[in-house]
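Weekly puzzle thread! Below is a chain. First person to post its structure in token form gets bragging rights.
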Amino acid sequence: MPQDKRRVYRQAMLAERRRLQKALELIEAGQPIPEGEHPLDRDGQPMTADQMRARIADLERQLHLRPQQQTS
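Winning reply:
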């Protein structure tokens, strides 16, 4: 049972990371984020690009993933 909880929690974190990464890519490309898909912070305010990058880095640290390479 604990392994199932860990797997579900990990899947939720991976899904959040994918959602944030997609939103960040749209912002960096200068495209609008579709209505209702803009990530929100704990206060319910839209996240800035810097906040998204910080959250992605935090999720990668928690998931023991290698950080994404910046292609700038």
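Puzzle host: Confirmed. Bonus trivia for everyone else. DSSP finds two helices and no strands in the chain.
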